[in-house]
Amino acid sequence: MSATDQPQPEWPPGPLWILRVATVFLFAARGFLYLTNHGPLSVFFWNQDWLEVGVFRFLGLDWETYAANSEVVILSTQKSMGWLFISAAAVACFVSPTRNRWASGVVLGGAVFLIPYWLLAWVETDYRLPMFLEHFLQWMTPLLLVGYGRLPRMLWCGLAWLAVSCTFVGHGHYAIGLGVPVTNDYINLCIAILHCNADTAKTLLAWVGWVDLALPVLILLPWLRVPALGYMALWGVMTAIARIVGHWTPAEDYYGLHPWLAEAIVRLPHGLVPLTLLVLLVASRKSVKGWKKIRVWKNPRKADECGPVGSRTAG
Length: 315
What we know:
Blueprint: H1 13-35, H2 41-45, H3 48-59, H4 63-69, H5 71-91, H6 101-124, H7 129-134, H8 136-147, H9 153-176, H10 184-194, H11 198-218, H12 225-245, H13 258-266, H14 269-289
Helix pairs in contact: 1-5, 1-8, 1-13, 1-14, 5-6, 6-8, 8-9, 9-11, 9-14, 10-11, 12-13, 12-14
C-alpha cells in the first residue's frame, strides 16, 4: 500500500471544543478589558517620538494640544475594539472546519485586532523579547481554532508547538531573570500564594523558569510528550489563576479584582492549548492502538503521533 493509499487520521472533536472554549475566554476577557479602559492603545496614541511630526503635519496641532484632546479618540477606539472582541467570542463556538465559514471570518478579524495589543504590550516593556514571546500564544489561539481540521496535521501541530513554546520560553526568561529583571509581580504572586519569603520565592521561580525553558524540547521527545504536555496544561492554568489569588483583598470586599479576573481568563489559553495538544495526542494513539497500549515512558522510536497529513475533519 502506498503512502497516499494509507488511511488518514481523524481530527477528533475533543480538541476542537477545547480550542473553542479557549478562544471564547480569550476574546471575552480581552473585550471586557478594552471596554473597561484597560487597553494599551495610549502607548501608541501618546507616543511623542512616533506621532509628533505627523500630528503637526496632518492635523496642524502641537503635541500638547493633541495630547490634551486625544483621550476621547483613544477611549472610543478601545470600546469599538472591545465590542469586536465580544462579537468574536460570541461566534467562536460556531467555528468548524466543515461549515460556518462566516464564524471563522469573524474570529480571524478578532485575531487581526489582537495584533496591536500584542505589539504595544511589547513596546511598553521597552521591546523586551520575553514579553513578545509570552503573548504570541494568545494571538495564535484563534488561528489554531480556525486552522483545526483545515491545515495539514503536521503543519497544525508544528504551529501549536511553536505557539506554546514561545509562551513558556517567555515565562522562563521572566522567572529566571534571563536578560530581563525578575519582576516584583512574579515575586509578590509567589509570596502571596505560597506564604514564603522573597528569597524562597526567587529560588522557586528560578527552578520553574528552567523547566519552562526545557519544555519545548521535552515535548519533541515521544516518550516524554504526554507528561510534558500535561505539566504545561496544568501550569498554564495555575499561572493564569494566580492573577486572582495574588491580587484579591477580602478586607476590601475584593474591590478592584475585576481586571485581574479578566487577566486570569485571558491567560487560560496558556494551559488550554497544551491541553488541546495532549487530547489530540491521546485520541490519535487511542484510535490507532487502543487506550491500553499507550506507552508514555517506553519505545521512544515510535512514530510521531501527530501522524501523516489529515484529510478528514471533526464537525
